[in-house]
């Protein structure tokens, strides 16, 4: 069986073209500010890359290096600055609860990464719009959203089914349950109808919507199945283990599986292509496209338009 390798750069193209077109046609210049309050070289690299990508699309990106003890005040100032449309902070800064506090200092109007309580609550509760008129969609965190868009692109989402139900009948394993990627991703997939096995170092949980509960939030259950069992029954396996030595044995995968890795490290073995029908080795370029997409949405909301077209 032949496997199709799908690169994030390929999936990102139509999104980036659409964003560029909207920016050009509307003659707008949305501005994103990134706050760097740690000395993480990976954050600097990511910021440089974000700046370059934004410049190509027509988004203004400014990196502000600040002392961690003045970060909160800098974020408050940016919240009030009408020329800034999106704010992101490179974490960790303090680590733990204080970082969570800073995430909630960012105004929901500018929370381009969707890390504050409002959007997170809405996502976990499957509340898709900010307003009763359903004119403003909620902001979804960039990497989980990037994975969803890639799964749509490769046809895992069944377009014949109703919106909100397009993963009905799919079984998906996500190996990572971090608050930044794995848990929100499991929730998004389950809210769209999938049965999701969420794996982390502490064990396995099952996320799924109740029978007949269309568009209602998913529920979570502790699961006593093994990794071997859940991977073997999954149509899609998603890995995000931040460890170089971690390799998911190809022998566990179902024939024809869709295999997607979002870890910086390759979590699948090289011979994954012998079992998978589709293999997506990384997602980074789609993540940045989603960051820009979220920014354009927030720009529209701030300027009282809607972004039905994106
Ligand atoms: P994290 O450390 O917060 O979480 C890691 C998760 O993996 C945890 O749930 C942990 O329990 C689980 N895990 C670790 N070892 C495991 C094992 N042996 N078996 C099962 N589960 C295991 O990390 P994170 O912030 O979620 O990032 C994970 C990876 O994804 C990193 O490599 C990071 O660079 C990458 N990442 C990529 C993007 C992108 O857009 N490309 C964005 C965010 C994170």
UniProtKB/TrEMBL annotation:
Question: Which keywords belong to this entry?
Answer: One-carbon metabolism, Oxidoreductase
Xref: Pfam families: THF_DHG_CYH, THF_DHG_CYH_C
Which segments constitute the Tetrahydrofolate dehydrogenase/cyclohydrolase NAD(P)-binding domain? 141-200
| Documented EC number(s) | 1.5.1.15
Which domain of life does the UniProt lineage start with? Eukaryota
Residue ranges constituting the Tetrahydrofolate dehydrogenase/cyclohydrolase catalytic domain according to the UniProt record: 9-113
Gene Ontology terms, MF aspect: methylenetetrahydrofolate dehydrogenase (NAD+) activity
| Gene3D superfamilies cross-referenced by the UniProt entry | Leucine Dehydrogenase, chain A, domain 1, NAD(P)-binding Rossmann-like Domain
Designated name of the protein: Methylenetetrahydrofolate dehydrogenase [NAD(+)]
Its gene name is: mtd1
């Amino acid at each position: 069986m032949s496997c199709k390798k799908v690169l994030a750069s390929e999936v990102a193209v139509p999104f980036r073209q659409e964003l560029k077109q909207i920016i050009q046609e509307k003659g707008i210049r949305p501005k994103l500010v990134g706050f760097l309050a740690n000395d993480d070289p990976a954050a600097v690299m990511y910021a440089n890359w974000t700046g370059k990508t934004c410049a190509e699309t027509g988004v203004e990106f400014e990196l502000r290096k600040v002392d961690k003890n003045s970060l909160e005040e800098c974020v408050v100032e940016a919240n009030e600055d009408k020329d800034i449309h999106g704010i992101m902070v490179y974490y960790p800064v303090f680590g733990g609860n204080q970082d969570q506090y800073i995430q909630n200092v960012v105004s929901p109007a500018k929370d381009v990464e969707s890390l504050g309580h409002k959007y997170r609550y809405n996502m976990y509760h499957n509340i898709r719009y900010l307003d009763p008129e359903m004119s403003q969609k909620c902001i979804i965190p960039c990497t989980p959203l990037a994975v969803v868009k890639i799964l749509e692109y490769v046809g895992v989402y069944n377009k014949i089914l109703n919106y909100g139900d397009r993963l009905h009948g799919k079984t998906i394993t996500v190996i990572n349950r971090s608050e930044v990627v794995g848990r929100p991703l499991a929730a998004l997939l389950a809210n769209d109808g999938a049965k999701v096995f969420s794996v982390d170092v502490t064990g396995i949980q099952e996320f799924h919507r109740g029978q007949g509960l269309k568009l209602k939030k998913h529920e979570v259950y502790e699961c006593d199945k093994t990794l071997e069992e859940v991977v073997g029954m999954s149509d899609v396996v998603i890995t995000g283990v931040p460890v170089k030595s971690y390799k998911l044995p190809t022998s566990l995968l179902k024939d024809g599986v869709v295999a997607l890795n979002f870890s910086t490290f390759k979590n699948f073995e090289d011979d994954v292509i012998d079992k998978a029908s589709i293999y997506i080795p990384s997602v980074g370029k789609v993540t940045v496209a989603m960051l820009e997409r979220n920014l354009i949405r927030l720009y529209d909301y701030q300027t009282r338009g809607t972004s039905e077209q994106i």
